[in-house]
Specification:
Layout: E1 4-11, H1 17-32, E2 37-44, E3 51-58, H2 61-68, H3 71-80, E4 90-94
Antiparallel strand pairs: 1-3, 1-4, 2-3
Helix pairs in contact: 1-3
Length: 99
């Protein structure tokens, strides 16, 4: 079984930082309750608090596909359109160097 890991970067538009932080806190509760979610950790950069990094790991590809089909994620992404630079997040998939 190969885990599916990624990190997403969200850069808040000016004045939207706290709104994104609130949405991420709410989303974290829901994503962490999903079957197959191993890790969902949202962070803010200390030096640039408008930048958020979300580290995610799912048990496998199937768990990730289930995750991206969830309604709470779709709602979050829709709200993000008016709050984030570029209208959303930049997703970067990861491959383990050592397992």
């Amino acid at each position: 079984m190969t885990q599916k890991s990624l990190y997403a970067v969200i850069t808040a538009l000016p004045g939207k930082e706290e709104e994104i932080a609130k949405l991420l806190k709410e989303l974290a509760v829901k994503v962490r309750a999903e079957a197959g979610c191993v890790r969902f950790l949202p962070y803010r950069l200390v030096e640039s608090p408008q930048v958020f990094h979300i580290h995610e790991t799912y048990e496998d590809e199937a768990a990730f596909k289930t995750h991206i089909s969830q309604e709470h994620g779709k709602i979050f992404n829709e709200k993000l359109k008016s709050l984030a630079k570029g209208g959303g997040s930049e997703v970067n998939f990861l491959k383990a160097v050592v397992e």
